[in-house]
Amino acid sequence: MERKEALSRITYLTAELQRHNRLYYQEDQPELTDADYDALFLELRELETQFPDLAPPDSPTQRVGGAPLERFTPVRHRRPMLSLENALMEGDLIDFDERIKRFLGLTSGEIEYLCEPKMDGLAVELIYEQGLFILGATRGDGTTGEEVTHNLKTVGEIPLRLDLPAPPPLLEVRGEIYLPLAPFRLLNREREENGEAPFANPRNAAAGSIRQLDSRITARRPLALFCYAPGEVIGEEFESQSTFLSTISGWGLPVNPLVRKVAGAQGVIDYFRTMSSERESLPYEIDGVVIKVDSYRLQRELGEKTRSPRWAIAWKFPPRQGVTLVEAIISSVGRTGVVTPVANLTPVELSGVTVSRATLHNWEELEKKDIRVGDTVIVERAGDVIPAVVRVLPERRTGAEQPVKPPEVCPACGSTITRIPDEVALRCLNLACPAQLRESIIHFASRNAMDIDGMGEKYVDQLLRLDLVTTVADLYRLTRADLMRFDRMGDKLADNLLAAVEKSKERELGRLIFALGIRHVGQHTAKLLAAAFGTMENLAAATAEELLTVREVGPQVAQSIRSFFVNERNRQVIARLFSAGVTPQITAKQVGGRFTGKSFVFTGSLTRFTRDNARLMVEQEGGHAAGSVSKKTDYVIAGKEAGSKLEKARSLGVTVLSEDEFLDLLEEAGEP
Ligand code: IVH
């Protein structure tokens, strides 16, 4: 192609892709299928490789892989985003309460406080003009943050338009973006398996996800938000923090349902105790509670210091940290062969949980932190199931501590260990490695994969010990007699396990693809692949070009899928699975599904499925999940506490379904 022609094509493609991004993310009205979008994207990328000097600086392709952070536009906050003073113990809180009473000249009575969970995430500001979400920014240094509108628009809970007859001319709302624990753990597992450094805690994961130049990466991380403070507001007056929160919640903005109004210091102390014990069962990380004088009149009277308001304080939970001894550093081999250093610790209790192992993530990190056998270290549980070593206490060293070198051979099978270029991880590349086999069977049987009820670590270890399995396909050839050889196995238990294995034969194709443990193919990608290719045969035969037409499949993923299916051993495992009677249920193709052309809106708090899954289920049937209700909406699925969207649906006469009714509809759609 000639330069001139290339330039005009690049200009056209750039404008088109930008328009489709807008349609997809902002207006929620995509015109293209994912495959058509990806084709345009790939064409542009191809041209830009041929003519690098013609690539526009704002090209949609530049966003893949993260350009330098300077590219975010700075945003000056109209009002500074202050931070909070910390209380670390009860006494600090009592001092705070007394200071306030003194300042206000109050000699009797109690102050009303609004208590809120302190979300461990990243503070952002959302700006709505005439009810329209026009800009979002991070807190930054409190005065100037970074514009991240494109990423915030991918957060499903953030309304792009407030459902109000007369929205205020200006509404700035502040809140905390966070990543719930379940997707955080999943993300870290995927990162470790892909040889990438995992995030130390959900807060870092949320921050890393929001500060992405490619909003498609952000879109894949199910971020969430709770709003907790006003910025500049024109056209609306609020009396108190509690009325502010209930009002904006009515407008469709997410507000934490655990906020409570309490009286005086004692009320706060009771709230703090309740939240301390509820903390462990919440689906997200909180690191304390925030206490605010409820009345805005009193807040104004109390005013602000330079960095923090006088009317609020953050009462932090004690960190889930402890000091203990590193007894040994061992290598553990994961499902994809990644060899990770793990510290065996002298058991220590961290807020109710006894910890005796900590992940050291990778050998580079081990070296950086200079952790040695015999070291006294600080360990912390930070949202992750497996705790991490924060740092060494060098002052406790005696000189007898032993540094550990990365292993040269796999501790499980003795094969030579390889360092893959561009990865921090070391890998054992032996596919028959028993450690990998163990992990891959556990993964295959796990709940999100083939969901073989009861087939956990304990039984997998017995299967391996008795040499009953050499690949996952052998699971389907187990007999009752085989199982009866297990320690402490009874008739009933054996029958249950066999029944669970049998039942798993008919899982959906997406689950089977995920269960195979192809590198870079997570649960979500597996479902998209199932929807796009329909059968395992089609997927196995797909060329890299065909794979690249699936949204979210980039060159690295396509390559990994190709290598998986080219491998003779993997093909045999799949053939053996099928000959043993595994018959994956065909997922409907995106085009021609029963929901083709239908538009769905999910609102309220969903309990039967996540928003992401709901979207996926709809898309698999060819439908579209939108963010806001309009005349074009076909169904609104209302969870608990559904608000304005539900009202709007009713006023427009749109069919409203409960979550269960939606699942029924989905089942009908799935029938031939
Ligand atoms: S209010 C002037 N409320 O904690 C009041 N902050 O240490 C500003 N945070 O930067 C904040 N949950 O990132 C407030 N319910 C909550 C919060 C909360 C988490 C964070 C926020 C803030 C930091 C202050």
Describe this structure in words.
With 672 residues, this protein is of the alpha+beta class. It has 5 domains: 3-64, Helix hairpin bin (Helix Hairpins), CATH 1.10.287; 90-316, D-amino Acid Aminotransferase, Chain A, domain 1, CATH 3.30.470; 321-396, Beta Barrel (OB fold (Dihydrolipoamide Acetyltransferase, E2P)); 408-587, Orthogonal Bundle (DNA polymerase, domain 1), CATH 1.10.150; 599-670, Rossmann fold, CATH 3.40.50.10190. Helix content is 37%, strand content 20%. Strands 12, 13, 14, 15, 16, 17 and 18 form a 7-stranded antiparallel beta sheet that branches. Helix 3 packs antiparallel against helix 9, helix 12 (434-445) crosses helix 13 (457-465) and helix 16 (509-515) packs across helix 17. 2-(butylsulfanyl)adenosine (IVH) binds next to strand 3, strand 8 and strand 11.
Q: Provide the structure class.
A: alpha+beta
| Rg computed from alpha carbons, rounded to a whole number of angstroms | 27 Å
Strand content: 15-25%
Give the strand tally: 22
CATH fold-level topology of the largest domain: D-amino Acid Aminotransferase, Chain A, domain 1
- Amount of helix: 25-40%
Low-confidence runs? 63-69
**CATH hierarchy, class of the largest domain:** Alpha Beta
